[in-house]
Structures are given as C-alpha cells and as structure tokens.
Write a structure and sequence with these properties.
5% of the residues lie in helices and 37% in strands. It is mainly beta. It has a single domain (2-92), classed as Elongation Factor Tu (Ef-tu), domain 3, CATH 2.40.30.90. It has a four-stranded antiparallel sheet with strand order 1-2-6-5. The chain has a four-stranded antiparallel sheet with strand order 4-3-7-8, with no helix packed on it.
C-alpha cells in the first residue's frame, strides 16, 4: 500500500528493497504497471512513473520532474500489488 506522499509527490510504499526481485513490477488499481526500477531520480524518463529505493528505505514510486501522486491519482492508503517475476514464471504477492 501507499504509506505516504512526500512534498515532491513521490509515493512511499510499504515495500522494502528486499521484498522485490530484479524483474518485479508494481501493479496499481486499474491494472497500470510500473515495471522500471531506477537507482536515482535522475535515471527515470520524464513523465513516466518508476520505482526506486527512497531515503526512508522503502520503495517509492516517482516521476522525474513531476509528481507520481498526480500522474497516478494515488494518495496515502491506496492499495498496490507487487508481481514478482522470475526466469521460470510469475508469482503475485
């Protein structure tokens, strides 16, 4: 779930980096997928949501030079799903 929204519009989830695999993706209500994981905010493509590990130690959804909260129309308390993908298949959590 989304725990909070910071002052930049980044969505802080309740997921830790150890919860995800390299090929994991987050699925939002409405089936929108966030498959890209970046190491820094600058690595993200402008206008597209991506995941990264934030300063709080949790996975965040962010948009380079924008607001993930506005782009994705989400706020604190919103549910999300994590899809763990491995070489042999797909597991949903």
């Amino acid at each position: 779930m989304i725990l909070s929204v910071d002052q930049f519009g980044n969505l802080i989830t309740n997921l830790k980096p150890t919860d995800i695999l390299p090929a994991s993706k987050i699925v939002l209500s409405g089936q929108r997928e966030i498959p890209n994981f970046c190491n820094t905010y600058n690595e993200g493509a402008p206008g597209e949501a991506f995941m990264l590990t934030g300063s709080t130690g949790y996975i965040e959804l962010a948009v380079k030079n924008g607001s993930a909260a506005s782009l994705l129309s989400l706020k604190a308390g919103a549910p999300i799903a994590l899809i763990l993908q491995e070489n042999r298949g797909r597991t949903s959590v």
